[in-house]
């Protein structure tokens, strides 16, 4: 099977976790920032999370270095373009990228500038390559909540013009959802779609809460629904898309080894299961690698792959026109 040439869809990919190492070196030089090293291999090693981190927090430390160079509009535009370019060159036909606008204000950029730059980079790539995309705005769960409405308001101007959805990311504690009910409600009213990181490090109850309290239409990872019958049934009942990210799930110890990943059981039980990268640099992966790993580990056929591809189309936060275009690549 030629995994590179398969048409692919990535619904869960973080901008700051997918920066090219060489771009970090270039941007640090042009921004007069000092780096721990100028050697591309050492920069790469600093950004790639170990094969198994003790926990999600250890994994999340890898984002500091890329974020240090992502504090200007030009840098964000470039990194956004390059991510869509990298994906297009491996036949990703549709890509939803998420990032946290709150993480890009170290030099005073406004939320509007930050979101506009990310969208502009995506649109430049859409002109050049056969790829379409949308942005998802991630709120950091561990950050002060005082500017969440401002992020939602700034992003609302880009809805249907490059921004599609609202997300919660960062460290996952049991019971985190309740504190975010008013923000998810507000985002929904403004017209955002909703996806929430849940059931990754935290308990299955978080997935149940994300669906029932925060209107999640998809969940990031969702692994721990395996040990929570109520959450499992909610996913099934409401056709909630499971954005699984196999390599990342091993690194953060959401699962021990790939053969233990519940993705095949989810697929066999007709849950809306998708394959995604999470972080191309931090997880040292590509969509081609993720698809290959899952297909080989679980002995999936080409027909199985296209079932998953069609589920990704169904779950994508995009227009019917784009969905029709994506279906044209399906077998
Ligand atoms: O797998 C993950 N689980 C939870 N949070 C994550 C994951 N990957 C990245 N981020 C967080 O999302 C922020 C915005 O992109 C990143 O800076 C990182 O803190
Ligand atoms: Zn993620």
UniProtKB/TrEMBL annotation:
It is an enzyme of class 3 (hydrolase). The record marks 221 as: Important for catalytic activity. The active site is at residue 200. Residues 7-328 form the Adenosine deaminase domain. One of its GO terms (cellular component) is cytosol. Zn(2+) binds at residues 12, 14, 197, 278. Binds 1 zinc ion per subunit. Its EC number is 3.5.4.4. SUPFAM superfamilies: Metallo-dependent hydrolases. Keywords: Hydrolase, Metal-binding, Nucleotide metabolism, Zinc. One of its GO terms (molecular function) is zinc ion binding. Substrate binds at residues 14, 16, 170. This is Adenosine deaminase. Its cofactor is Zn(2+). Catalyzes the hydrolytic deamination of adenosine and 2-deoxyadenosine. The keyword Signal does not apply. The lineage of its organism: Bacteria, Pseudomonadati, Pseudomonadota, Gammaproteobacteria, Alteromonadales.
């Amino acid at each position: 099977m030629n995994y590179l040439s398969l048409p692919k869809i990535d619904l869960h990919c973080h901008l700051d976790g997918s920066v090219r190492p060489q771009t970090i070196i270039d941007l640090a030089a042009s921004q007069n920032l000092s780096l721990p090293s100028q050697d591309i291999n050492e920069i790469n090693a600093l950004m790639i999370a170990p094969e198994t981190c003790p926990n999600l927090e250890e994994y999340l430390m890898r984002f500091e270095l890329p974020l240090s160079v992502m504090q200007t509009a030009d840098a964000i535009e470039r990194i956004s373009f390059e991510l869509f370019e990298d994906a297009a060159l491996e036949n990703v036909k549709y890509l939803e990228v998420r990032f946290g606008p709150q993480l890009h204000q170290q030099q005073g950029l406004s939320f509007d500038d930050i979101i506009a730059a990310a969208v502009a980079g995506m649109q430049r790539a859409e002109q050049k390559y056969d790829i379409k995309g949308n942005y998802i705005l991630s709120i950091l769960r561990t950050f002060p909540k005082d500017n969440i409405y401002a992020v939602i308001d700034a992003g609302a101007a880009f809805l249907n013009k490059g921004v599609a959805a609202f997300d919660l990311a960062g460290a996952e504690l049991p019971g985190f959802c309740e504190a975010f009910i008013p923000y998810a409600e507000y985002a929904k009213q403004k017209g955002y779609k909703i996806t929430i990181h849940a059931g990754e490090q935290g308990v299955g109850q978080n997935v149940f809460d994300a669906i029932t309290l925060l209107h999640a239409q998809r969940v990031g990872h969702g692994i721990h629904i395996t040990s929570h019958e109520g959450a499992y049934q909610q996913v099934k009942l409401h056709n909630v898309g499971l954005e699984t990210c196999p390599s990342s799930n091993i690194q953060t110890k959401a699962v021990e080894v790939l053969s233990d990943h519940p993705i095949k059981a989810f697929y066999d039980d007709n849950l809306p299961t998708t394959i995604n990268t999470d972080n191309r640099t931090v997880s040292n992966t590509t969509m081609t690698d993720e698809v290959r790993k899952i297909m080989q580990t679980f002995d999936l056929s080409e027909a199985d792959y296209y079932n998953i591809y069609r589920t990704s189309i169904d779950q994508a936060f995009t227009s019917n026109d784009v969905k029709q275009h994506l279906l044209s690549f399906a077998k």
